[in-house]
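Message: Study each token:
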Amino acid sequence: MLISFVIPVLNEQDSLRQLGSEIKAHCQPHAHEIIFIDDGSRDQSFSIMEDLAAQDPNIRIVKFRRNFGKAAALQYGFNLASGDVVFTLDADLQDNPAEIPNFLQKIAEGWDLVSGWKQKRHDPWHKVLPSKLFNWVVARTFRLKLKDYNCGFKAYRPEVIKEVRLYGEMHRYIPALANALGYRITEIPVEHRERQFGRSKYGWERYLRGFFDLLTVKMVTKYMKSPLYLFGRAGLASTVLGGAITLYLAVLKIFFHVPLSNRPLLILGITLVLAGLQFVSLGLISELIINRVSSLQDLPVSVEKTVNLPQLERPRK
């Protein structure tokens, strides 16, 4: 079995040699390839990767011209990976490669994606607390009960990474994207080590970006093929509320002769009705666009197995 390791790197010059040796030590007896993606490092990381690649033909390296983000680095590495199992882990040595056999055991049990859970984190509280809140929100949004979406230590079957497309900050939502495609997801506790070198590359702004990507992933996983369900609900609610307001005002005008020229509520009711119609129209147009550009062969359907699928015969002239 060939194991691929996809490792994004950003200014981790002091940890790369140790990381490479630890991976080799713990992935035996399987063949392996290590794909380092230099995501715009400004230190000597790429030079060290070049030395490692010159010494070991199983190490492949890529250098981005600038920092494009972890999701872009992972997606590029996924396109290059050719293993029967694909691992992702961070380059800062906080993910312990000694956990590799545990991941492989879960993959052998039939799981398609195995995610790590940093059960005991060695990070400052101002990183742990927001991470716990983030994991709580995401788990309830997608109804996939994982304790740690942020852990970069994961193992995948190759068909998973071929179907999932990453950009922005979507690498945190890979389990949710894979779950929406019908893949089997599980989680195992992993050792989280203290950072030995460098410093964290993430700040508070990543949670803001992650929130917007959360909305995107929710839209993609739930309403990609049926946008009318989203826009139609909003339109129906707005139309019903606006209709109730205008009906109430009509009753006041007809039966009680109440003047409406000075009632802002009338403007609100009409606005809600028009907005509701706009939402419904937007949903219908979205449905037309999707049905125009899509065909049955293009649907993102994950087929686990086919047995004795008959061939269709061409009609004779």
